[in-house]
Amino acid sequence: MARFRAPVTGLALAIAFSAAAPARAQDQGWRPLSDGKSLQGWTTVGDVRWTVVDGAFTANPSTQSQQPLQGFLRTTETFGDFQLRAEFWADRNTNSGLMIRCGSPARPGSLGTCYEINVSDDHAVSPTGSIVGVHSTLPRRVSTVGKWSLFEVTAEGSHLVVKVNGETTVDARDDRFAQGAIGLQAGGPNGPGLIKYRNIKVRPIVPTAAQSAKPQGSPGPRSLLIEDMSWTEVRDAIAAGKTTAIYYTGAIEQNGPGVALGKHLFIAHYLAQRIAEQLGNALVYPTMPFAPTGDWGVTAPGVIDAAKRTSHMRMSGSVNVSEETFGAVAHDVALSAITAGFKNVVLINDHGSGQQTLANVATQLNREFGPRGIHVYHIPDLYYKEKDVMRDYLPKHNLPLDNHGGTDDTSEVLFIDRAVHADDPRWIRPDKLVKAGPDDPSGINGDQTVATLEMGKVFTDAKINLAVAQIKELIAAGK
Length: 479
Description:
- By secondary structure, this protein is an alpha+beta fold.
- It folds into 2 domains: 31-204, Jelly Rolls (Sandwich); 226-477, Creatininase (Rossmann fold), CATH 3.40.50.10310.
- The protein has helices at residues 10-27, 209-212, 231-239, 263-279, 323-340, 355-369, 381-396, 407-421, 453-477; strands at 31-32, 42-46, 51-53, 56-59, 70-79, 82-90, 96-102, 115-119, 149-156, 159-164, 167-173, 180-187, 195-204, 244-249, 282-284, 298-300, 303-304, 344-349, 375-378, 435-436, 446-447.
- A hairpin with a 2-residue loop joins β10 and β11.
- Residues 1-23 and 216-221 have low confidence and may be disordered.
């Protein structure tokens, strides 16, 4: 039986056209970064061999060498604000990353400093979909191993958004890198597996007329570090509710031949920002790099007796300040924060020496300013209670306790080094880590050789959580 077909009316055509218009608009402006046949538009960096297989950039370092290899592809073109789509396929043992805003390489074989969107489902610190050193997906993990998955990335000013298979894994702000190349990583010390990328497309974000009319440099504060802010931004942040100032002290001291002298400084600078993020109403004052670390061995004006040096000052590079100087700096920084308008100032010390000195400074300033509703608090829980966590954790995992520079400290530096520098770590020399006891010439009392990223996260998380809890408790009590 013949069927009656109604004529397509103008209204129906209009409806069909209007439905298709949004879809076409969404696809406008995208352009591919690969022709699917060659590496045209990209340069190779490092030792890994890249090929194009079935339209995908493909690398498998494990088939090239038994030794760890690492290499990158880098676009010849650079990008500022953009949207990016890229499909990827990874093995379980793959270590890869999608890099954005990569600067000029500082040395041969380097990709340059970038934001790295990690590809490593089982990574202890920054699983797939994390931006290394900016935001981790943990405790959530996405599952991408052994299948094609999709990255959708938006980089607009300091605002960074990452989606994996439609799920938002990062929505953060960071202003370290404004423009640069796009890169793809294959391999590394712990991930030689197969990686493939295909259908890589970019769409530049063009500012509106209103945005273009704004003076350059006017986006406002994007950091919780006051050294990154102008004085008016600090003033306005306080007025908007950021009324807590964090003063966190580190130290420059020996940590054996395998860990950089700045251990406490690195930890303090990194954790202060994480604590401020969790508090939500805090800014961070510049990290104090020095603490009491021993005696110089001065026996008379102009005379130093090496045999009289004590503690960490027996080793080259350690820096000592007296308890008096340490307390005076803390006092004056806290007073500066009060002068700026902060209502609460918290004093934190990542180093054992100087804890009582900070407590005395807090007591003195509280006595002077407490009646005016301004308080200064010492936060000892971060140091002492984290040591309790360590003393509970290590025996349960059949590991020996340590006293200085051992498993706990080295794990924390290992974790933060990886978080900050991704696959270009700078603060640990793995082949020089030691296991030693009291009075060992290395300066270490503990076992650095068993340090892991996993323990680093446990111990740094403990410090953050303990500090945040004590700060909130003290401010709520208002004493």
